[in-house]
Each structure stands twice: as structure tokens, then as C-alpha cells.
Amino acid sequence: MNISRHQSCYQICALAILVLSLAMAGCTANKYPPLPIAKGSLPSTSDPDTYNYLIGPGDSVNIFVWRNSEVSTTVTVRPDGKITTPLVEDLPASGKTPTQLARDIEKSLATYIKEPIVTVIVGGFVGPYSEQVRVVGEAAKPQALPYRQKMTMLDLMIAVGGITNAADGNKASIVRFVGGKQKQFQVRLEDLIKDGDISANVDILPGDILIIPESWF
What we know:
The protein contains four helices and ten strands; from the N terminus they run H-E-E-E-E-H-E-E-E-H-E-E-H-E. The chain has helices at 2-28, 98-109, 153-160, 189-193; strands at 60-65, 73-76, 82-85, 88-92, 118-123, 133-137, 143-145, 173-178, 181-186, 209-212. The longest helix is centred in the first third of the chain and has 27 residues, at 2-28.
């Protein structure tokens, strides 16, 4: 009778351990494919090597018109993405490179000035929302950051102060636009930050969203 009870207790304990192990395995598994690290194989619509900064709301724009100081000025891009300068009203600026904006200003000024030559210098570097990199979840300082050319995951982690003690870093993921569609990829923040595994230092691209979940254990 006692032997039977001991066997029953052993079987129950063994079953409980098995269930717990399966549950933990299921919680630690990441259902997203890993994000490739090698350049040239990145699934993206943007190439870090050929990236050009795009102007966004909040950026400071210094407009220099050669030999026409009276229409040269510095303005801030409005929340609607437009600028107003002497002789030019409500000109769209957000989403353009400084060179593109300069050519557009030249076209507008050509009505008043013969063959204007315009140079645009940008400051502030906020960038359009579509280009910003967002970090949400269990980061020390979740925030949106302007993209920098050749930014990596390590750069991003330094900017947000790393991950919290409650974070499940190896279950983190990057949401990225690929071919006009959002796709999600696995990244290994725990390996990168705590183990110093440099193979986990993947490239970040404009518009990426880093999601850091909370650990269950």
C-alpha cells in the first residue's frame, strides 16, 4: 500500500516536472525568424551604405540663396511638414533630402529671381516619423530616435540605456517594412548585452521598431 502511494507521488511529481519543462520551453521559444547580420542579405527596403537623410518636422533648415541675402533665412519645419520663407509659402519639406528641397525652392523663387542658386543646410536632425527608430517595452528608456547611418543594435541599446531586469532580451524582435509589408524578426539582446556576443549586433534600419517583452520568470 505504501509502495503504491510512493509510486503515485513519484508519477505525479514526474508529470508536473514534465509539464513545467514544456511550459518553460514554450515561453523561451521565439517564433520569429532571426534577423540576418551580414550586409547585403538584410531583408529591407533601405541600404545603410546609401542612406540619405530626410528632413522632418522640427528640423531647422538654413536656406542660403546666392547673391540674395534678403531671401536667405533659417526656418523650422512645421508639424505639417511645410516651411514658409520670404517669397515662398507653404512649401512641403518633410520627406525630402536637403538637395531636393533646394531644387524646389529654386523653382519657386524663379518667378521673382533670375536663375536662383539655393543651398539648404539642415540642423536639429529629428527626421520624419517614418524614418525614426522606436524602442518599446522593457528598455531602460523607451523612446523614438532619429536614425543614424550604419546604426547597429549596440548603438541603439546604448542610446536607451540597455534593458531592464524584467526584460526577456532574447525574445525581443524587430518589426521592419519589407517590400511594403511589416515583418517581424528575432534579435538577441541578452546575448549581446550580458554575454558580449557580437554576432547578435545586427544592423538597424530607418523605421525599425524594437519590441522588448517582459520575462515570465
